[in-house]
Amino acid sequence: MGNPVYPAAVHSRALDYTGSILPRMIPNESELTADVSILPGKKYGFFTDTSLCIGCKACEVACKEWNILPAEPVELTGMSYDNTKALSATTWRHVRFIEKIEDEQGGRPNILRPFQSQWLMMSDVCKHCARAGCLEACPTGALFRTEFGTVVVQQDICNGCAYCVPSCPFGVIEISVHDGKAHKCTLCYDRLKGSLEPACAKTCPTDSIQFGELRELQERARKRVKALHELGVKEAYLYGASGGLGATGGIEELRAFFLLLDRPEIYNLPAAPTLPSGRMGKSLKTGAATLMGIALAAIFVLVRKS
Amino acid sequence: MAKENIVELEYSRKEIDRNRPSEISIDLEAIENTERSSSLYRGENYYHLPAVKPSYYEWKIGVAFFSVGVGGISQILAAIIDFAGREEDRPLIRVGRYLALSGSLITSALYIIDLHTPDRWYNMMRIFRKTSWMSIGSWCLASFGALSGMTVLAQLVEDAGRKRLGKWMGRLFQLPAAAAGGMLCLYSGAELEATSLPVWERSHPLLPALFAAENASSAASAILLVTRNSKLPDGMRNRLESFSFLSGAVEEILYRMVSHRWVKHPGGGFNSGRKIATPVSAFQRMGTIASLFARILRMIRGRSSPESSILSPLLTLGSGLLLPVRVLLSGNESARYPEEYLSDTQPFALSERYIGARGTENNRNRIAKREHPMSPFVGLGLSLAGAAVIVFYSKKRGRDQHRPEKYRV
């Protein structure tokens, strides 16, 4: 063990083993932990395989720890194990639990199905859409596309106009009551800059959350879906793959995509969302036509011949 | 899944996939047309937790939409009279320009106050993003404020004595200001439509038209209200009221069309008129109809007292103010119901149109039959009839009642 580095103010009970055992950061650590080198200019994302999720919520905790996000008031919701309820300005990973207690006929099942039996668990996150509703709506330019293909809010520019909030087709981004600006998952932009993989992906014990280059992840995902189908799990499908469910209406693809085991609405995901800016042209044309008509009416009514 | 709430949900009528069929690269393997992921949506949701987040826009933004719209239309009316009106009608240009400037100032102030970090309001001018209605609107508002200021300056120059200079300076800035004003009337509705909230999304593409019509009737009423104690040119008062009711009739038509789209499931779930928005919506509808009746009553009586001459415009303004507020409140409330959003975002792309033979009975979209209640058409008929009566009656009469002149316009 090298010289441990003690942080400034730590409770004495927590002092044991708080220092790092390594003298410095491992360069290109993502090559060790995620088998991917993080280079600017390439597209990176998440593949969240819900068939492997055990619902431990380590991703929620790691995200909060790394980004120093405040905890929410503890509230037991009665919604299975989900006490977080939704993504918010201070929750950037949110684990969903669905207990399918009834079978199709409404009775109790007496045969357990393979893979998670009657339990669906899914770690929700910002989808970092290839064409993002929030990004296209932001008037200040605070939301931008990083060199890694992710969508990030620049906190020193955002003025809290909150137009991104209703624009997001997945209800991800929110204005924080603490500082009046918009916050969402950054895909650990700061960690990517240091060649570390994102906190949630690193901490996931079952590798349900996988980080990597987008094309590679998509290939891996397709192979996984095939493998699951062969094992008898016919409901497995990809949500957010190019042209598939979740990436419709101009969104093209979700850079944080999912393997789901039931219909998307069960997970509170829209089956076929649309990019809001696709509606701009028709709105303007219809409105302009009406305004022309009103102006003509005004000329007709108000202008008199001399 | 709870059985009591299974209703036949109507699919959204809009086209989900904007690409042409030949350009779509649908990954058929990825979709894996399974029973679960492609069968009819029966209202499943996740513990009734919202699937989208409501906006933070409430009364401040509603009032701001109203005031900038009134200002924009005032500038358009001023432009019409400036370029095509008679010499006697020119005092109205002054009213229009002042209304436009005050509208833009009030709206700017309200927008800045409503920001969650107001001291960074100038960041709106950092970039111009053509995919964002808010960006387009911010730039339009800034230029409209500047141009309206210049038209007011020109008006002051004209009033101070330099008539020719003032008139031509005013004309120089009037058209661009009117153009910016027109854009401002439309962008507020378009901005709401380009979001993911169910009620606003369903109103596409009618919301800008609705707001524009409401702004037109409110602007004419505002001019009438402001000039209630002044002597307007002969017949102008009647003409303005006619225009106000004509726009009001258009607004009524559009409002019926829009609100008809909001309620998709009459049986249960979200009803846009029921919950929080109800008192607001009641006053808003009352104001429009009451204004019409007040005017007709006055016309029948043949008398004009100072009180009755402001009642009708005041009611129109009141209902015009409440319309954007009501639309905002309804939209925010609709975000709380996941069934609404999730049923709006069902995939048409999985239908036969795109996949071809893969479409099965499960995939085919079934549109529930919707009853057409009679009440909207009654209200519509009343408005149209009233507007027509006023338009033709006032054209016939043409003359205004004389009242003691208190202020010069």
Number of strands of chain B: 0
C-alpha geometry of chain B: globular
% residues in beta strands of chain A: 5-15%
| Low-pLDDT sequence parts of chain A | none
Largest Cβ-defined interface: A-B, 96 and 104 residues
Structural classification of chain A: alpha+beta
Helix fraction of chain A?
10-25%
Please, how many helices of chain A? Answer: 8
- Helices of chain B, by number, come to 14
Strand order of the largest sheet of chain A: 8-1-10-9
User: Total strand count of chain A, please?
Assistant: 10
Please give the alpha-carbon distance between the first and last residues of chain A. Answer: 98 Å
Radius of gyration of chain B: 25 Å
What percent of residues of chain B are in strands? under 5%
Taking Cα atoms only, what radius of gyration of chain A do you get, to the nearest Å?
23 Å
**How far is the N terminus from the C terminus of chain B?**
67 Å
Tell me, rounded to a whole number, the average pLDDT of chain B. Answer: 76
Order of helices and strands of chain A: HEHEEHEEHEEHHEHEEH
Proportion in helices of chain B: 55-70%
Structure description:
The complex is a heterodimer of chains A (306) and B (409). With 306 residues, chain A is of the alpha+beta class. Chain A has eight helices and ten strands. Helix content of chain A is 24%, strand content 14%. A four-stranded mixed β-sheet of chain A has the order 8-1-10-9. A two-stranded antiparallel sheet of chain A has the order 2-3. In chain A, strand 4 (143-145) and strand 5 (151-153) form a beta hairpin. The model of chain A has no long low-confidence stretch (mean pLDDT 90). Chain B has helices spanning 28-31, 35-38, 59-84, 91-114, 133-160, 163-193, 198-202, 207-226, 236-262, 277-301, 306-334, 338-344, 352-355, 375-397. Chain B is globular. The longest helix of chain B is centred in the middle third of the chain and has 31 residues, at 163-193. The model of chain B is unreliable at 1-37, 266-276, 349-375 and 398-404 (pLDDT under 50). Chain B has 14 helices and no strands. At the A-B interface, helix 3, helix 4, strand 6, helix 7 and helix 8 of A face helix 1, helix 2, helix 3, helix 5 and helix 6 of B.
